[in-house]
Amino acid sequence: MSLPTPPAAPKRPTTIEQLGRTRTDDYAWMKDDNWQQVLRDPKALRADVREHLEAENAYTKAVLAGTEELQAKLFAEMKGRIKEDDSSVPAPDGPWAYYVRYDVGAEHPIHARKPKGGGAEEVLIDETKLAAGKAFFQVGAASHSPDHALFAWAADEQGSEYYQIRVKDLASGEEVGAPIESAYGDFTFSPDSQWIFWIWRDENARPSKVFRRPARGGDDVLVYEEHDDGMFLGVGVTSDDSHILIHVGNQETTELWLIPAADPTAQPVVAEPRRVGVKYGLDHWTDRWVIRTNDDGAVDFKLCVSEADVPAKETWRDWVAHAPGRYITGFAAYAGHLVRAERVNALDRLLVMDRDGGEHVVDFDEEAYALNLETGFEYGTTLTRFVYQSPTTPRQWFDYDMATRERTLRKTQEVPSGHDPALYVARRLQATAADGEQVPITLLMRKDVAMDGTAPVLLYGYGSYGHAMEPSFSIRNLSLVDRGWIWATAHIRGGSDKGWGWFLDGRKEKKPNTFTDFIACAEHLIAEGYARPGKIAAYGGSAGGMLMGAVANLRPDLWGAIIAAVPFVDVLNTMSDTSLPLTPPEWPEWGNPIEDAAAYDLIASYSPYDQVKAQAYPPVLATGGLSDPRVTYWEPAKWVAKLRDHSTGAAPILLKINMEAGHGGASGRFDFLKEIALDYAFAIWAIEGSWKQG
Q1: Which CATH superfamily is domain 58-79+426-693 in?
Q2: Do residues 261 and 192 touch, judged by C-beta distance below 8 A?
């Protein structure tokens, strides 16, 4: 039995002239010109586009019909590793301890609190009830007011990332004031609990204004307006509650504005004016500012301090000097201590510093692990909390006394269906890149896997925006590993796995390093006997989906499957469309092909959609979300159509668009696993070569 016939996407050539260059886009018609309305109301999608996407979904379902039993089994396995009535470790704040928990079978959590000394639970919001009857529901920020009288949450009901913020009076149980509309998913209460600071998203889905509203309802007052379309906005409060912060920034430049908490209605004052290429973040540590910055050539960042009321650059003095290869990823301030997070060669560690200048290290001995701070609500405490995990070790939550250095294990992630770390091994390899750089690879496998190249390998990568791929524990990956697969994570350039310089070596004109690093990792796995060509499934999402498209074009012979989740593959067109939400903010990452001919030529040289050529492609599964504002649905749709048209082989090329979700896929904790199960089932099906038999 042969595979069904795929949908035939008509070609409607559109000619684009730009900077003296001409390109033709046969599938530009898939972009609905009314896309802004589609984000808010998916029913507004143009009829011919909807018909095509639904035909693609039906085709994918038909091709993979034989894997439905496997998908169900994979889903059941992954769900079986989740403690259904799970809860977070309570976070103390004054008289209360706050936490989230799940009821058995619930897709969404309950936010709750109890008196710190013990007592009855008080439910703040039940997301399952709020989500009832909605195809998509996701809460962004959710927080109680500092006086514990109010609780606010931001909810997205389309997947478009347009949020609605609501505020509840915890004494009466009633909502107060009108909902805040067209909001970003980020907000903060002022330390006096009288105000909410929130961010407005404009008609192009960009955060562009900060407003202040009385916490119990009232008129919105404009606090800050950003006129540069290339900047993102954020709001927060310093650890010591002395200032409200407005964060402005993109991938290479930041600027902070300060409002004294003693006068929340005051006009914001800039800390240090933006300078292109200079990033800084700051927090107030009782009597001084602590600034993390890459200024003055500190590629992997340094810490400075300032005793000034407004910490402008001329008041900064070096405190923790820059050390190349030691990437200072962040810090957390407490009344008597400051915790510094660092990463060296893709491994994390924490350093606790006291006010007298002494410091000590918190680290672990495994070959590959991840270590993350959870700062909590309280400033005047000696306790900090961190989460430790590794590819073989489930998450462990520790309270750490910074004064006595005592660790208290508060929780270990339960795996109800069982997990024995002794059955698995995690390894750290080093692949040699084309220019000689050493690229780390983290492996997870069962100890009984034959090391003769016969085991199928899933090679995962991302490599953009400075995001590191931490060697964490995953209940999902075990479903492949327990079937004899090797899970490999490539710590390629473009991420910050080996420091900020690792990121800088994989952006703009150096972006091709990301792709060649990933290929070098695959070749190293083959050379070391872990894999064979055609037995590797390459997997990545979003910008990692761009990576998938690039390596499919460059080395299709290496892969037995390509899984590209919400893939950013139409790079040249997207970076040339200033109406799209992320285009101006991302020019620092990719370059501006509208004004810079060199940037145009570079992007055109690797943009997956533009570089599709006549060659035999491996099996491909591309997924997307109709209301995704980050990677629009038409990117994977156009890419799949062009791949099918150009591929000289018989491998199936599939598209699955979630017609009721955005960038993150389905919103529920279990529904999301069904999408992962589809990805994994496709990988197994493709690597086994089932498609060759029809």
Answers
A1: Alpha/Beta hydrolase fold, catalytic domain (3.40.50.1820)
A2: yes
